[in-house]
Here is the input.
Amino acid sequence: ITSKGQVTIPAEVRKHLGVKTHDKIVFVIEPEGTVELKAPRYRSIASLRGAAGSLKKPLSWSEMREISREERLDVYANTKLDFGDALIIASMQQAGSELLYSYDTDFDRIPGITRRSPGSIS
Here is the structure.
């Protein structure tokens, strides 16, 4: 381990993980205390394209605004989340998404939503 906290990953481990120079890796501390080294499935924001699925038919901007406004208000009123978090949940529900990567533990109390810490991406 260098003075900057950098770690050298042996070539055999890099090959096993399928990582190359400048790729991202994460160290995941498990509840039982073990630490796992993982290569995230989605290595960049761009690689997330299409991960949430797609709509059956395209929506106009006005349709999207109306749906999000109604759902934000409903989520906001029923969950006591702040307005920004309510927007995220309403958007996820509209898209049929159930998995959220966030450090914000407020999402843990939302039924039907599974929150994972960004360090646990696999």
